[in-house]
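Please produce the structure of this protein holding adenosine-5'-triphosphate.
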Amino acid sequence: MSRPILEVSGLTMRFGGLLAVNNVALSVQPKQVVSIIGPNGAGKTTVFNCLTGFYQPTSGVILLDDEPVHQLAGHEIARKGVVRTFQNVRLFKEMTAVENLLVAQHRHLNTSFLGGLLKTPSFRRSEKAAMEYAAHWLEEVDLVDVANRPAGTLAYGQQRRLEIARCMMTRPRILMLDEPAAGLNPKETEDLKALIALLRDEHDVTVMLIEHDMKLVMSISDYIYVINQGTPLADGTPDEVRQNPAVIKAYLGEE
Ligand SMILES: Nc1ncnc2c1ncn2[C@@H]1O[C@H](COP(=O)(O)OP(=O)(O)OP(=O)(O)O)[C@@H](O)[C@H]1O
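Below is the modeled complex.
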């Protein structure tokens, strides 16, 4: 096994009297799909919020490539290549699909304000590269045909794929997806599964997934962590987790 890209130990998050996350440990290998599952309110999104710097954990250590990141702000963690989507779609709905991908690249554009005003050759080159990268990802997520439609008018599954493409604009190393299949029909969920596999297998992205769709989780995950009421319950391969009596009792048994 290679060195983990992300290693979490003793992760704890308290909201007043509520212990939302209690001593969670994760070890995430690069270029794998790692899922976090558990019943509603188990603390999954809170774990994501801690990993991405939205919350400062009450205690615990988060190592990204052996470097502690648990005290960094969200934008600093994002700059280190950890990006996420949210449970609800958060696109610029009035902008077209391609515009959503272009604005996401502004930090990567090697341009100055003056360069933009004067349309210098370096500005034009940079603009062209951004457009090519956006076009490439529109193709990868099968949205070329709707590139010029406002994002808010796309089908829900298309909006989900556009969000993932938008994350890819920042060339992330870890992509965290919070319930990406929620609200998708079976065909859209199959497309999502193929896209997640593509990110891992062709683009070397490590994908972390929070998901309630067990069919998707069991078929795409390399490794699964189960948490229940904030506390680690089990972890293992999909087969190991599926057969774990504690998991069946606490979670899968409910399905
Ligand atoms: N900012 C907050 N302030 C207070 N309590 C919070 C906050 N965020 C989450 N919680 C609480 O922490 C617990 C875990 O919530 P969390 O959203 O992480 O669960 P989850 O496993 O993602 O649930 P779901 O599957 O329903 O999305 C819940 O009891 C929730 O009410």
